[in-house]
Design goal:
The protein is of the alpha/beta class. The chain has one domain: 4-Layer Sandwich (Metallo-beta-lactamase, Chain A), CATH 3.60.15. 40% of the residues lie in helices and 20% in strands.
Length: 308
């Protein structure tokens, strides 16, 4: 059964059950005169997304836009599949990501290289998006949904070069994709730093750019809504600096393979909170999330410092 709730006026958060883990992936439905999905999840999440829409009386035929915060498969992998059911919808995507929606073969190969062949089962078929249904956007562009709800596109590099965030003007909240970090509840905020294109300096600049907009709330992709915006941004930046410090220290002793272990030890007390309430989420974060973040950060650090 799908979990959907209204998190601001006419904005709904759908738990898309990505990877089969409750409380990890958010798809947002904006229900105004015009209607939009912010992200889709992978194709395997499509049944939950459609069920969530039906619960608030939105038909696939009503959707005008699918806004892809970025092209990683857990965010927009289901766009091509859903478009088959959404005849009037366009996909709004960063100018650097459009080609990978139109021809996802390289994107799928990259994800398999990072996460293994199991990726194909986890994400399902990635259906190409017809070029005629792609709307390329850049920083400052807008999407007007009527009823005084205008969405402003924010260029948001750092997590990936094809990342965008979206400022909605009714409640002055920001859909952050992965550019704003993750929020696991229980006061746990952290960055998302996977390979292959993570850049910590750009990530921090994007966080500061969003903070300067003084949003009322953050619609986070992993997972749900953050109301304590300042504290969240500070915690994400603090962890990035912690990762930089730990990585630098371990690089000096040629022990970068211990970074995941050291980071987990630093976070163990906080993570214990979700271990009790959400054991499946805890297991995913510890066994997959942290190792992937560490892999991306180490790659970034080595490239930045010219290490082999």
């Amino acid at each position: 059964m799908v979990d959907i709730k209204e998190v601001a006026e006419n904005i709904y958060c759908i738990d898309d059950g990505v990877y089969g883990v409750k409380g990890w992936g958010s798809v947002y439905l904006i229900k105004e005169e015009g209607k939009a999905l912010v992200d889709t999840g992978p194709t395997t999440s499509a049944p939950l997304v459609l069920e969530g829409m039906a619960k608030v009386s939105v038909s696939p035929k009503d959707i005008n836009y699918i806004i892809a915060t970025h092209i990683h498969l857990d965010h927009s992998g289901g766009a091509g599949f859903l478009l088959k059911k959404m005849p009037q919808a366009q996909v709004v995507v960063h100018q650097r990501g459009a080609k990978h929606l139109i021809d996802p073969s390289r994107l799928v190969a990259s994800m398999v290289a990072v996460q293994g062949e199991e990726t194909k089962r986890m994400f399902g078929e990635v259906v190409p998006v017809a070029e005629s249904r792609v709307r390329v956007v850049t920083d400052g562009d807008t999407v007007d949904l009527g009823c005084e709800q205008v969405l402003k596109i924010i260029d948001a590099p750092g997590h990936a070069p094809h990342e965008l965030c979206v400022l909605e003007n009714k409640s002055h909240g920001i859909f952050t994709g992965d550019a704003g970090g993750m929020y696991l509840g229980e006061g746990i905020s952290a960055p998302l730093t996977p390979p292959p294109s993570f850049d910590a300096e750009l990530y921090i600049a994007t966080l500061e750019k969003m903070a300067d907009m003084e949003p009322s709330r953050l619609y986070v992709a992993h997972f749900g809504v953050v109301m304590r915006v300042k504290e969240h941004f500070e915690a994400v930046i603090d962890e990035l600096r912690l990762m930089e410090e730990l990585t630098g220290r371990l690089a000096k002793t040629n022990e970068l393979d211990k970074l995941a272990e050291k980071l987990l030890a630093k976070k163990s007390a906080k993570l214990a909170r979700i271990k009790r309430s959400s054991p499946a989420l805890y297991k995913y974060v510890v066994e997959h999330g942290i190792p992937m973040n560490v892999s991306g950060f180490v790659k970034y650090y080595k490239e930045k410092h010219g290490l082999n």
